[in-house]
Specification:
Elements (H helix, E strand, L loop, with lengths): L2 H6 L28 H13 L2
């Protein structure tokens, strides 16, 4: 949506002093066999990135 502006470096930060409150993020799996390898990889990635 704003890729050209990001690439051109023309975006400017707004509300620099504004901080959001931390929120909890949970991964919920249905009962039964273990989630697929793809689902586990996604959850592990999100856990690292959202730490």
């Amino acid at each position: 949506m704003c890729g050209p502006e990001v690439n051109a470096g023309t975006l400017v930060p707004l509300l620099r002093g504004y901080k959001l409150k931390p929120v909890g993020v949970h991964a919920v799996f249905p009962g039964g066999p273990r989630p697929s390898t793809k689902v586990r990889a996604l959850v592990e990635y999100l856990a690292r990135e959202l730490k």
